Amino acid sequence: MNIIGHKKIFLTFSGILVLASILAIAIFGFRTGIDFKGGTLWQIKFNQTVTESEIQNVFISDLKVKDATIYPSDNGSYLIRLGNISEKDHQNFKNILSQKFNGLDELQYQSIGPTIGDELRHNAYWAIILVLLGISLYVAYAFRKVSYPIKSWKYGIITLGTLFHDVIVPAGLLAVLGWKLGIEVDSNFVVALLVVMGFSVHDTIVVFDRIRENLLNQKGKSEFSEIVNTSVNQTLARSINTSLALILVLLAMFFFGPTTLKYFILTILVGTTVGTYSSIFVASPLLTIWQKFSKVK
Q: Domain 39-111 belongs to what architecture?
């Protein structure tokens, strides 16, 4: 399969995905959950059949709370997200809802202040930045013995670029879902992005490592682009089979797993799929483009 020969098609497709994701984030932004902005998460189950609209009406008309967001959860329960409330309001809301709907069971209640939310958000940013930096430095060090015809630090830079590609696409998707469906991002979203980085860098290094082996064996006998194309084809089946096994598991968890983890799993699913694509059709073609540009220069 002549992947390097058709690199313009693959890179154009990736460019469109990345641009669309950046525009989605810039235009819609993220709906942040209580982890990052503070607020209250309340999970309750009623003793009778209740609809979301009925609960919403009680919050608006009886409790005078207009910003409550209500999601159906597992076993007929509901997740309710609202701003910071006092313990007195908590008990008052609980009593009124219990009277309206013939009793309820409180399954979960947690409240996070805005200060803690800001700290978690800043820590999440730093976690992603440090992981990206650490992976890039590691790859540059690991490939120090194959500095010809392309410098080892360039492997690290390209790995960094593919990681950005792999996290920005699911992030853009969550921005669109937040705009259309009101889906919020929380600390689980950050964990999902870090998991995506782990799987993505694994696939990329498998391909790069085969390129390194072939470069050392060939020692200038073949063109760099030919060696890269051969290396990608040698690892193609392994990369696809490994990722496909994970994708099948994630699909099963997405459709049959707990509702509370649905978008956490979706983030990993999209990121893993995009990461498999980038390790084959983005990272290696970028190597050949950079090498050709350096040679011409």
A: 2-Layer Sandwich (3.30)
- pLDDT greater at residue 198 or residue 173: 173
pLDDT (average), residues 177-186: 86
- pTM, rounded to two decimals: 0.82
**pLDDT tens string 36-79:** 777 888 889 988 888 888 898 988 888 888 878 888 887 788 88
Domain residue limits, the chain: 4-34+115-296, 39-111
Does residue 72 contact residue 78 with C-beta atoms inside 8 Å? yes
Please tell me the CATH superfamily of domain 4-34+115-296, with its number. Answer: Multidrug efflux transporter AcrB transmembrane domain (1.20.1640.10)
